[in-house]
Amino acid sequence: MITVNIRYTGKDGKAREFAREMMEKGVVEAIRAEEGNLRYEYYLPVDDPETVLLIDAWESQEAIDVHHGSPMMKTIAELREKYDLHMTVERFVSADEAPGDEKFIRK
Phi and psi for 69 in degrees, rounded to 5? Predict the structure, then answer.
């Protein structure tokens, strides 16, 4: 599993407006229905009203690549531009894909 954390930051509440429009247009629901998507959720930091955190998880890099090639990416890019958002991105792989880490994980 690959998890991607994307922080969208804007001004005057634009990041929250972006997330709302993504949900209202059905883009979020469509992404969640894509093969290989495990999670697509927005979170609002308590101490930063100008940022929205997206946690996006996929079964594999191949699933992400298909998503990135989908028509939804054009819609997402247009909305990012509309709301003048800037992004930071972090990627994580599951412990199952990081040999040696399992000995530090209590299940």
Answer: -90, 0
The size of the chain, in residues, is: 107
**pLDDT 10s digits, 33-55:** 999 999 999 999 999 999 999 99
Q: What is the Cα–Cα distance from 10 to 101, expressed in whole angstroms? A: 36
State the Cα–Cα distance between residues 9 and 66, nearest whole angstrom: 26
Q: Determine the Cα–Cα distance for residues 50 and 48; give it in Å rounded to an integer.
A: 5
3-state secondary structure of 104: helix
- 3-class secondary structure, 95: helix
H or E segment at 66?
A: helix 61-68
For domain 2-94, say whether CATH 2.70.40.10 is its number: no
**Which residue carries 């709302």 as its tokens?**
20
Contact between 14 and 35 (Cβ < 8 Å): no
> What's the predicted TM-score (pTM) here?
0.84
SS3 90: strand
Residue ranges of the domains in the chain? 2-94
